[in-house]
Model the fold of this input.
Amino acid sequence: MLRSIRTSIATVSISGTLPEKLQALKAAGFDGVEIFENDFLYFDGTPGDVRRMCEDLGLAIYLFQPFRDFEGVSAERLARNVERAKRKFELMHELGTDRMLACSNVSPDMIRDDALIVDQLGVLARTAEEAGVIVAYEALAWGRHVFSYKHAWKLVDAVNHPNLGLALDTFQRPTLSIRDSVDEIASIPGERIAFVQIADAPMLAMDVLEWSRHYRCFPGQGAFDVAGFTARVLEAGYKGPLSLEIFNDGFRAAPTAITAADGYRSLRFLEEQTRALIGENAPPELFNPPAPPEHIGFQFLEFAVDDTAREHVAQWLGRLGFRLAGKHRSKDVQLYRHGAGSIVLNAEADSFASAFFQQHGLSLCASAFHVDDAKLAFERAAAYGSKPFSGRVGPNERVVPGVQSPDGSLDYFVDEAPGDPTLWESDFVLTDIDGPYEVGPLSRIDHVCLSLPADALDTWVLFFRSAFGFETEAAVLVPDPYGLVHSRAVRSRDGSVRIALNASMDRYTAVSESLSTYRGSGLNHVAFSTPDNFDAIPRLEADGVRFLRIPRNYYDDLVTRFGLPDEQIDKMREHNILYDRDERGGEFFHAYMEQLDQRFFLKVIERRGGYDGYGAANSGAARGARATAAAGGSGGMRARGA
Amino acid sequence: MLRSIRTSIATVSISGTLPEKLQALKAAGFDGVEIFENDFLYFDGTPGDVRRMCEDLGLAIYLFQPFRDFEGVSAERLARNVERAKRKFELMHELGTDRMLACSNVSPDMIRDDALIVDQLGVLARTAEEAGVIVAYEALAWGRHVFSYKHAWKLVDAVNHPNLGLALDTFQRPTLSIRDSVDEIASIPGERIAFVQIADAPMLAMDVLEWSRHYRCFPGQGAFDVAGFTARVLEAGYKGPLSLEIFNDGFRAAPTAITAADGYRSLRFLEEQTRALIGENAPPELFNPPAPPEHIGFQFLEFAVDDTAREHVAQWLGRLGFRLAGKHRSKDVQLYRHGAGSIVLNAEADSFASAFFQQHGLSLCASAFHVDDAKLAFERAAAYGSKPFSGRVGPNERVVPGVQSPDGSLDYFVDEAPGDPTLWESDFVLTDIDGPYEVGPLSRIDHVCLSLPADALDTWVLFFRSAFGFETEAAVLVPDPYGLVHSRAVRSRDGSVRIALNASMDRYTAVSESLSTYRGSGLNHVAFSTPDNFDAIPRLEADGVRFLRIPRNYYDDLVTRFGLPDEQIDKMREHNILYDRDERGGEFFHAYMEQLDQRFFLKVIERRGGYDGYGAANSGAARGARATAAAGGSGGMRARGA
Done:
């Protein structure tokens, strides 16, 4: 069996005490860790205790860090720094690690003299040699004099001592934080790279130190070309661990186990991306899960219901043109179908769905995706650490592979072989009126939008990127009367499945809901697309579907913003249709149905001219209208606790 | 009676729907508002509805904003922009406001030609004249070509039309965000300043647009010299409203009424500061509350207890050398005294304290401050909108003026006139052993530290700055195993009262606690100072006081950090004393007692050589140790829900 790439993470990346961190990191799958000095200092046990704890868990200690401000100093201070280094080397012996990270000096009184620095790094290298350890020298992006990896490499190369190597970090200059080339990394001899640290981050226009200390995230969650960096590192011949070093205020306050699992998943995902980037010369030990499905679509959405909720949803579906198409052979489960999609209502007692209903009330408990090969899609998701799920299966019923989403809801993968019975035929007693279904005004599910607790957004983005192989769209900030909403969409490569993820900053509503009745994420809305909103909406209204009233002022402003013809504005006003236009002239029409439940609703949308977004610019108007409606009209107030 | 300065705020500054915002702003005390266009667009009612709502409330609409990208455009676009302006002017008539904010153009294709811009602003001014409105032109700090108030003023001056004035904003260049002089403002004719917007912000090294859009705060909460700006504006002869325009992600998610009240309080505080800055020539209508007490000290801390909690706390106090000094004449309240301070334990049924105990358990329900003149101190706090409190007073007992803190706990003000009975003599039956008390190892209360929900920090800072006239210290970020802690201290001018405010980012602990058992802020610790920690701690230990064990690793590291003598380190290790040193050589020794309650504890500190901080650098060590202790030892894990 191939030895795989060694995975590592700095203990500073997650929350908890040192023992909590180590246990969570082991459980997540990491091979080893960097011990961040403060985690050790705040731990009430000896270095030997830490060593034994790691040995018992089977975790290697790949690095001790950070050691600061050694080089470019006066002779007197050098002597003190050597003493300081010796003490840390002793500590490292007791910890059982042979590698220390030394950061380039950030002190304002550093002496900026490369020859002197080479001399002093030489002293450090020889001191390390005596102690039998290796020092990895890193150019901090905010270093006083040495702030690029190229400069650091020049110095390390000049010292030319086996006990001093180069430490590389994606957050170094001039690599990713400065968007400069990383190509020169590939020409550094691999054995001179003593350690490699990896972090992603969103692109932010801020001081690099602040950015680095507070806004890093796991690979796949940010905007850095982390795979490009890693590819060059491997091409250089580096054989050591890939180690995450993430400073993130949110991660430090998030549940330890979840962040640890995200970290491990992100490293594996990085390996897959790096493999793709390098191509056929990629090291075979890079993680190699099954490729994501080439085609994927929504097969059905499944709601957990009780009898009352079922009746309520069924009425809604009826007005939208859905028809009861079948009943499950062995469970209290109904199938509603429509040309635009299928909805399953699950009221089975003592099942996953009933547990979900108990916890969340009427809610989306599962999403099923139609794929080329359900087994492969499942295997990919499972390879990325998603928990497999299997429910009870009756005789001759289909075993549908599924995994858990981060909130515990399920994702099923379904395929159909030509000639075989379909899932519906296997598992359901179909009604006489089963198919073919008219398309009617709605043609398909365009996207699903989920509401998340504020700190869960990164977890979900990574879940869809890795387990599903989805792409991410740019993050947007959406105004809401009760707090801004961070929104980011993920989508399959061909755009056939889109999922918008909304995380509200409203601590009072979102958190209290997530801690009490709501408990985690949940459906915000399902958007059905239509080829012609101006045809579809009046037809739906005639069938009794009610739409959210949009404030008239919105339409008066539309006139000044887009110069649309009056008659079009009049129609949109009449039917409460919102409008957006992108830079290339693509147009988006969308209307919100009245709430189906206090938490979610349905939407009808039309895309024209390649419009590719979600009408975020109008989200404020819809959210304002919804808040007004919830308060019982324009003069109303929503009661809201402090 | 003097007419006061008109107070205003942009509706974007707080959360809620437009009706919610307006009602909260009126209740907070504002004279009028700026209607932020999106708030209007998302409101389902006519402009006339908004006008009537404001009239019914007695709120003026001082401004409609923003109007964008008018000037520096092609002739064709100018014509469209004039149409756009006319429509907005019509809307303003219906709203009943005569003033509109026009922001300098931010479009990349703006034509950077001052002569053209002056021409086009002239067109805007004449269009405004026809409509009977005034346009206030503002240089956005991120404007394409016009991004300083000096440039904007040059253009407005050149247009020289009464319907075009200058809008000033503290977030403009080159005023506060760029830390440049604001002195030239005073030389602009006051009648040409059409509007003044005020915001404060912390100093952040980030893109000015991001900074301005997300991190503004109310005057007194940030680091800008807002009073200096306001003084120049008033010296210029500006007579219009002072209007807050705050873009803050936290405020947009915070409870509407609290933010509105903070806003009003901040404007009044700004007026007081501005008055002080201008001196005797200050406009008499500027807010003029009683000055803060010249001398202030902790008189007593009062805990809400039941019988069990009282016994528990009394034991603790006994070990620290406190003695039962008296019982209240009419209530179930006990007084414990010590040279270092007084503690009141309140178990009175059906009282404020019992309500507090019911809600929070054992908790700090009141703090009493010794001041020169209690009536004046109370009047100042009340003038800043703090709710007065008066409890039951028995015959011949003292009426102690008090106000509510933001969390509902009380602040009392106490003074003593020579010859009159003291508060203790009036209200308590004193024991034989009443005073004089030996100082013992503890000399005084150095500071009190409160734990706050994350979004309450700004509210508390402003409360102490305005109601108490306290100064603020720099904000620091403190690591904790379960989330970073934003910490900021306030203090009386002479440092005799210091209160550290800690807001944790740990959503899971802090928020769930604040929403359930904990409900808001609460005492984190009380720090007693001692002239000699190395004398005090062993004596306290001998009396049975137990101190939190600090990890040994902390002391090993101290050696390398500060080069302290071995014997000193040994003593500190033995007695679990932490150490910090400031840049000027001032030293800080502090030790944490074991938790008195699951939420709070006591601390013993010693300051040497003018050390003025709180040992934040060690907070991580103590928090780590506490988490370890809570988990039951070094190998333990704290159970923690997701």
Confidence is low (pLDDT under 50) at residues 509-519, 633-642 of chain B. Chain B touches chain A through 84 residues (CB under 8 Å). The CA atoms of residues 341 and 444 of chain B lie 6 Å apart. The first helix of chain B runs from residue 18 to 28.
